[in-house]
Amino acid sequence: MKITDHIKQADQALFSFEIIPPVKGKSIQELYNNIDPLMEFKPPFIDVTTSREEFIYIEKKGGLLEKKLTRMRPGTLGICAAIQNKYDVDTVPHLLCGGFTQQETEYLLVDCQYLEIDNVMALRGDARKEEKRFESTDGGHKYAIDLVKQINDLNKGHYLHDVIEISCDVDFCIGVAGYPEKHEESPSMKTDLKRLKDKVEAGAHYVVTQMFFDNQKYFDFVKAARDIGITIPIIPGIKPIATKAHLQLLPKTFHLDIPQDLVDAVENCKTNKDVRQVGVEFCIEQCRELMAHDVPVLHFYSMGKSDNIYDIAKAIF
Ligand code: FAD
């Protein structure tokens, strides 16, 4: 079922979360161990991220390092299929411009169709760790909007190359990313919002935001989006702080501000258990305020950890 239909049918905020495929060679069981407890809160959908290929260095005889390009966390569609089968829940694979040709994207979309996946997130992806800025893949897309257009074209029956006879409908519900604190590469919030509107006009059906800790930034973002005519659901992305290291890591990676009272409370913690508790309590309050503002969904970034999300969901649902 489409995310937008889940939202239409709901009479209160829904609970959903995002998971990251395991590093290749690891069992899927650990992922299931994280998902199992969260199913108590009946998520209508679970997102599965896609990672780019990155350069890794393998040590050879004599200490020489060999540079190899590899995707360390493959298996997005396989995991979607496994989860749908095991838990009877909709899954949302993330599709990236970076690392995929348009043809490969089409193949993935055909696989999604066979797997009865109704929703996809259309994302550009970040630059590789070694790149200064995002470089598009030969034969791939430059911006998420181009991916949205490709998916929307397929929804209208247009494949990249002529298909002789089309006998089945494809109708993906398309999610895109939004940034309450602006995408790092955008020159201004206004420009970033205009790009978001372009993605919506190209066919996106809903937005999921980057994580944020200050609800006012989300409220302002939604208002500014509505003011320029973006009417589709804007789902807040939420991440509870769980370690002291998050105070540096999250702003560095996701270009966001952490409110001073949360910074102070985390810095005053003596143990990681205390930090986890501070993160949970802050997040419960954050979610309660968001729910009071009628958000459609509370979408959690699990980043491989679910016990704190369980405690938060238990307190608010
Ligand atoms: P875009 O919408 O293409 O925007 C990228 C930048 O280009 C922005 O600054 C935008 O303003 C600018 N821009 C857009 N169009 C134009 C134009 N025509 N001309 C000039 N500038 C333009 N990354 C992963 O690798 N895997 C994931 O699974 C993943 N999941 C994510 C899920 C969510 C909910 C979010 C919020 C992010 C996720 N990301 C993921 C990170 C995402 O890939 C990065 O934030 C990336 O840098 C931008 O992706 P985008 O889809 O927002 O790009």
From TrEMBL:
GO terms for cellular component: cytosol. Keywords: Amino-acid biosynthesis, FAD, Flavoprotein, Methionine biosynthesis, NAD, Oxidoreductase. Signal peptide: none annotated. Its cofactor is FAD. It catalyses: (6S)-5-methyl-5,6,7,8-tetrahydrofolate + NAD(+) = (6R)-5,10-methylene-5,6,7,8-tetrahydrofolate + NADH + H(+). Pathway: One-carbon metabolism; tetrahydrofolate interconversion; Amino-acid biosynthesis; L-methionine biosynthesis via de novo pathway. SUPFAM superfamilies: FAD-linked oxidoreductase. Its EC number is 1.5.1.54. This is Methylenetetrahydrofolate reductase. The lineage of its organism: Bacteria, Pseudomonadati, Bacteroidota, Flavobacteriia, Flavobacteriales.
